[in-house]
Amino acid sequence: MQNSVVNVLSAVIAVVFLCGAADRYHFPSHDWGYKKHPNWSLLPHNECGFTEINRKHKIIGGAEAYIGQFPWMVGLLDPNEPIKTAQIFCGGSLINDRYVVSAAHCSLSERYGLVKYVVLGEHYQNTVEDCDDFRCSVPAITMRVEENIIHPAYRTVGHPKHAIALNDISLLRLRDRVANYNEFIRPICLPTFTSLQGESLDGCDLETSGWGAMGPYKASPSSDVLRWVHVLISDEECSTWNPYMLTQICAKADEGADSCPGDSGGPLMATVLSTTRRSYVTVLVGVTSYGSSKDEYDSSKTCGSHIGVYTKVTQYVDWILDTIRK
Asked: Span of the secretion signal (predicted)?
């Protein structure tokens, strides 16, 4: 993520997902079709999507995330580096004690190969103990990936320099279970709420986060710290910029703000009101896939003047439920 973009990934204000009728998303229930699925019980419905960060103290725009703001964030570690010094090259989202959702192009990369290890509870990549002005976290946990599961219909189309990824979603099965959830490691909710089924996100202000590039150019260094940014869904603007599929979401941040290389696989997040004891939960509505530039002939920039294209997770909940196992 880049500076203003950087703002992109820092953290604090989880936007309440009320885009349209003011009460459209009050106290949502889960779609009955999902609740009937035999693997429904594998999802942590009462443990997902909440953070200990007090929403009253959140700010709009941010840069660096607060520690524990996005406890579902997972870093995919470069398999070509020694495990103790490996850097994060893609993001992901923890969805239960055994599975991470990421992008297919992160799990099946020509440069990196298959993902072997991920890190949970990370904030600053290069410190053992992460502290901010408010508190310190417990040490991050590195976990072995048992299986990289690529969506069977994943493919890229178009010229290699401007390729479009379709069905760009994957699951990483961890070799061991996450033993306990805490304020720094916790799953995000899948978009199984009835109110999210078939609804347009047009006009909604969402969030994305990651450890991606700090600038728009190919040589821009990655961020040492988890960052976040707000992105706005604008179907009209996106459709005039570049076509995208019904299985994708298009979003755009302020000029200069964007998700950048290294943010791929990370979450596009909405916050909804919940019926649980927690008044709000965060929902995984998209997976960062790729950016599309206004100027197809300007290959010097990889983000910052782009729209972001995200895999629409509501289109893949059935596949996720069919694929996960105990």
From this structure: 1-21
